[in-house]
Amino acid sequence: MYRRIILKSFKIRRKQIALAVIAVIMGASLISALAGVYLNIEEKVGKELSSYGANIIVKPKDDGIQLEIGGVNYGSNKQQNYLREDELYKIKKIFWKYNILGFSPSLNTVVKAGPKNESIVLTGTWFEKELEIPDETFKTTKAGVKTVSSWWTVDGKWINDEDNKPEAILGAAAAKQLKNKVGDVIRIRYNGKSIDLKVVGILHTGGEEENQIFTNLSIVQDLMGLKGKISEIKVSAAITPEDEFAKRDITKMTKEEYDRWYCTPYISSIALQIEEVITGSDAQPIEQIASAQGNFLKKIKLMMMLITLVAVAASALGVMTAMTTSILERRKEIGIIKAIGAQTSQTLALFMTEISAIGIIGGVIGYGAGIGLAQLIGNAVFNSRIVVNVIVFPLTIIIAIGITLIGCLIPIRNALKIDPVIVLRGE
Amino acid sequence: MLKRVVFKSIKNRKNRILVAVLAVVMGASMISILLNISLDLNGKMAKELRAFGANLVILPDENRETNWQLISMDEVNELNNSNISANIYGFAPYIYSVGKIKEQNVVIVGGNYENIKKISPWWKVEGSWNDDSSSESTIMIGAKVAAQLGYRIGDDVVLNIRKESYKKQTEVKDSNQTQVDATTSASQNANGDASKRWPLNILSGIDNGEYEPKKFRLVGIVSTGGSEDNQVFIKLNEAQKLFNRESQVNLIQVSVLTNKNPIDKVASQIEKQIPGTRARVLSQISKAEGNIQGKILFLMILVTILTLVGSGLSVMSTMTTTVLERRKEVGMMKAIGAENKKIAEIFYLEASAIGLAGGAIGYILGFLMAQVIGKSVFNTFISFHVTVIPITLIITVLLVLISSKIPVGQAIKIDPVVTLRGE
């Protein structure tokens, strides 16, 4: 009986039902799209913020005080310690390996360059090296300065890591100082040894790097007689903002708390995990980048959350008003049902079933449409897919049914209170 | 006549109209919130992104560099009172030298700590900062220096400062052609060298200079994870005196707000304002900043459009039902001789009234909610933008009119006989 009435109602009032469903779809798609984007915002904006460069610096432990200005080491007081190049791949094997967006090893020293024997810093590094990672599904990863310092630009060409040719990239200021240009050969002297490097590019960074000469890591290692050694690693990691929990002393945590801390991508836990795999290393967050990233991420997340909440509330109210009007125009119907002897509870059940059906249909279609919209946003803004969180589906459906029911409740109750005679008379 | 009909209709159908207005208010408030926030977002984000630190450095130009000239404090103050100050969030002048603590070479930095606090908010200082205004000789040291040399807050630190370092260097000849001897430490490599270029000019001649001890009280330990961990910090005035470089600085770090003018423009403005300097844009910070701002703003625009479409459709379905349920009325009007045009006019007028009322209330509501968001996210209020008012009103009225178009078109096509019969 119920089923027949409802099916008939859907069939005869097709247009009105369609309108109600469309209203629900709109609301639901907005909810699922914004919820989808919101749940992804930390990861996406976090990735974008990685364009600020490395946020973790790994140096040898027990390193002496460095003569360092603007992030560049101009030599140490005592015998320096070094890290091992062959351990670098392990950075991509830590618990948060997928959060490691790039890393770059380097070894530098002050050398004499050019005919005037000018002092200059020579840095050996990887540029964009394809590094094999054993026992991982992704097999290889790219590492080198290009993965951590996206703002570096080179006039000419970059050095190929595989070729191992005696080539150099000159910082723009260094090139001016040495009066060299692309194609020149520059003589480098260090400790009585000398090598000739061919200039293949001029580097622009806006930073202290413009005063340096860059070449392949192995060339500097050979020059300094430090085979397989590096002096620092810069790591760029996607992080989650530090909260109160992250600031606690890890030595005072219980086992469960420590596990929770270890398994959250805080900058401090990622740094610790890197320290664990690189022998004799000291990994420190670069506060300038890390803390600003964390704070900015927190703000943007809060903003998106508030906007999502407001939009959800607004669209919910919008759907509710649409549902209210759709019931208001059916007062006569309610009068008839009552006149032929239906009880209040029966009438209510009848309408509620119909409305729930509208809510479910609208909710499901709206969810699908919303996921599509979220993908559109993800592609347009962040150039990557939005990962759909399982929680979005039940959330959307529950909200969709909830708002349709609430939207109808008041007008139905009002309609039920009315004497059928008055309604049927046509007032 | 028309006025009376519309007026009566609104008065008699108070509930329905209220519901329709409510639907419009929701849509309008979303437009108003998002527009208000989007218009302010660039400015707000530019401020937030200043947390990443300086995006521009002012250094002496090559000509000055070759002649060992630095930047004078008068030139530093140019940044305060010129037409560029509106673009500047903060700046900090620095002077550098090299000294020794317990026979260890360290980089000594002279700075203005009030300024540094503002443009480099990530510095973690255990203990307290150097107080720029006090006359006591205090020092802050980097975490690594503290750990290596075993200093604690409150200790006395004896810093050996190189005397007349700059004078010595000028005497070194430009074309020092002697071969480098086989030394192991890289820092020794820089000794007695002709390098005049920043920052090697600070480091050259480390071991040849005369050093004079000076006692400081240790007030704070700085940790940043950057170069600062290896440096020691004294007050700018004191440093200038001790380095024999009164009223001069090596460089100025500037934090430029990029929402009004592009940073390259500000850089060239500064170079014009302070001749003999070059303003170097730190691409690391400035490029990332532009990228992030662009993305977030784009995201906001998409969300605005999305909510607009979403709330627009829900307004549309509400309007459709309000019109459709009045078919009988339309039939009646037609039966007593109203023209189609007149009937449409009544509906559109009524819709416009709903749109205006909903738009106005929605604008106010949205403005208030934007304040709540601004205050809780950025800790500042969203400023008032006049343009949002007409935009919100126009969009909502248009939305309501467009939503009414289809149902009104359908309603006036109705045969009065059919409707009046009661179908």
UniProtKB/TrEMBL annotation, chain A:
InterPro entries according to UniProt: ABC3_permease_C, MacB_PCD, Macrolide_Exporter_MacB
Main location: membrane
Transmembrane segments: 302-328, 348-374, 386-410
Membrane topology field: Multi-pass membrane protein
Residue ranges of domain MacB-like periplasmic core in the record: 18-237
Domain ABC3 transporter permease C-terminal span(s) in chain numbering: 306-420
Any one GO molecular function term: transmembrane transporter activity
A Pfam family matched in the record: FtsX
Subcellular location: Cell membrane
GO cellular component, one term: plasma membrane
Keywords: Cell membrane, Membrane, Transmembrane, Transmembrane helix
Source species, domain of life: Bacteria
PANTHER family (alphabetical): ABC TRANSPORTER PERMEASE YTRF (PTHR30572:SF4), MEMBRANE COMPONENT OF TRANSPORTER-RELATED (PTHR30572)
Protein family according to the UniProt entry: Belongs to the ABC-4 integral membrane protein family.
Name of the protein: Putative ABC transport system permease protein
Native organism: Fonticella tunisiensis
From TrEMBL, chain B:
Polar residues composition-biased segments: 175-192
GO MF assignments: transmembrane transporter activity
Any single Pfam family the record assigns to this protein: FtsX
Membrane protein topology class: Multi-pass membrane protein
Coiled coil: none
Domain MacB-like periplasmic core: 18-272
Keyword Cell membrane: yes
Source domain of life: Bacteria
A cellular-component GO term for this protein: plasma membrane
Region (Disordered): 170-193
UniProt KW Membrane keyword: yes
Protein name listed in UniProt: Putative ABC transport system permease protein
Lineage: Bacteria, Bacillati, Bacillota, Clostridia, Eubacteriales
